[in-house]
Fold:
Amino acid sequence: MNKTKIICTIGPATESREMLLELINKGMDVARINMSYASHDQARNIIYTIRELNRELGKNIGVLIDTKGPELSLKTLGGEEATLVQGDTIILTSKEDSEDINKFVVNHPGLIQDVKKGDKILLEDGLIELVVIDETIDDVICEVTTGGIIKNNMGINIPGVNLNIDFLSIADKNDIAFASSIDADYIALSFVRDANDVLDVNDVLIQLRNEHMQIISKIENKSAIEDLDNIIKVSDGIMVARGDLGVETSFEEVPYLQKKIVNASLAANKICIVATQMLASMEHNAKPTRAEVSDVANAVIEGVDAVTLSGETAIGKHPIEAVEIMEKIISNMELNLEYNRYMTSEDNFDQDDITTIIANSVASSANKLKAAAIVASSISGYTAKMISSFRPRCPIIVTTPNEQTARGLSLNYGTMTVVTPMFNSTDDIVNNGLREVKNLIPMEEGIVIITGSFPCEKHNTNFMKIEQIK
Structure:
């Protein structure tokens, strides 16, 4: 099995039962549903189908709901496409009652107060560029500096401008409530600006009495970079969202920023995901470019928990092939990694945390002994997450009586989850662990390291056992 997980964005190309089954069989670990495009009914049908397939296949595929966030978008009057040519003058307005074909409606009424003359306004991930040349009471007047075709609901970026817009819109609050009601495993927050945005969402989840849904903060603007350490601290995971990040900063900065975000996330033992255009050419072509292959491989070398397919699987012509190729790239790279360099220094974890110390010992022992597998018995998933953070060479088979815990580990590096009964003795934990290893990893002999807790009130992980299968 591959240790680096694959997230597939589900859309028109893959929302059928047949296609979801194919994605799972080819290596999808988590299904991403982007609420910028999906309705609640569409999302519900996808999730119900995935849960049904999980039961049939004995899988624990996770579900990630991606919020729209405080995103600026533009509408063409009448919904028609419009072609902009360099030197054209156009008007951005918040009023939809105009018949002027040079006016385009923006979904943020306060835009006129937020921008000033000389500010750049970028459309379509920076492919179209405008510059503000004047303002009226209601409108922003722009000159086209780089032309292109404007489509309805096209995204807008204004680099370097802090927009006076609420982080949580009514639509986002409704989407978070929906995600909670449908028992989603992860909520990905778009356009996070600082740690307070994450804490606001955490407050919403507390109000919804949802303790298990994990928060993934998407880093895609300068303000998030400036507050990166605090955002990581209050999040369960981080996504390097390179599309908007490359527009809000500059494209040449993205590789450095990716490395910075990944390193900071891994040092904090938080889930780390790389996303956007990883195999983008496969939206149309049956094979990726060599540069795209290297991009995926580099993310694996960096030690990320997961890589993402976006348009490739949502609307692409070759969604199944995209997953197959990403799986092959990951598999090849993981065969050639130097795993010991991922072992976290003792200075980077709490010496008083028994579970963390045991997790470090388990991962280190597994590498030194060339173990075939680690079995982690865990109720909450914390033990498995800590072992995963040390990036052992072998797979981590997690046995848990909790289905939510099993799905909630679908993004963690190297984990393979199995839902089992609750065991009342260490012998039962060990014996079950050995059975699961033999079921999941065909082997006649080898070393297996098993960890868990003796039956006690706190259920803290407090033992590791090395078993030799002969």
